[in-house]
Design goal:
128 residues, alpha+beta, Aspartate Aminotransferase, domain 1, 6-stranded antiparallel β-sheet
Length: 128
């Protein structure tokens, strides 16, 4: 079982990553911009009101829609989606269903999907 503390510890360990000041969201610097790779899911509880953060679920960027489908088919209890994310390369993850090891791999792939190539090469070399 993973927690938000695990998410924060893992995400911030990747180079050039920052946490958003206002939300539980993480982004990597790519050029002059930061590109998000993981954030707390904002759930539509009441159709007439704004979405509210659900700390038990993390939205995680994936490389492409095929990768999204693979995760959704692999474990529908751990990974899910909603209409808001249709056509967008991200999955929703129930933190209580994912191990820290799985979370680390998922976040590393999400970070890599948003990081610039030069940073990816530098990171890979530092891990070799």
């Amino acid at each position: 079982m993973a927690t938000q503390a695990d998410v924060q510890r893992i995400a911030l360990a990747f180079p050039q990553t920052r946490r958003d000041e206002h939300d539980f969201a993480f982004a990597v610097r790519n050029g002059k911009k930061y590109k998000g790779f993981a954030w707390v899911w904002k759930e539509r509880v009441d159709p007439k009101k704004a979405r509210v953060p659900n700390p038990a679920v993390l939205a995680v960027r994936v490389a492409n829609l095929d990768a999204k489908e693979i995760l959704l088919m692999a474990d529908a209890h751990k990974f899910f989606t909603e209409p808001h994310y249709d056509g967008f390369p991200a999955v929703l993850v129930r933190l209580k269903e994912i191990s820290r090891t799985e979370l680390r791999a998922l976040l590393q792939e999400a970070w890599a999907a948003q990081a610039p190539r030069a940073l990816l090469a530098q990171y890979a070399q530092s891990k070799a």
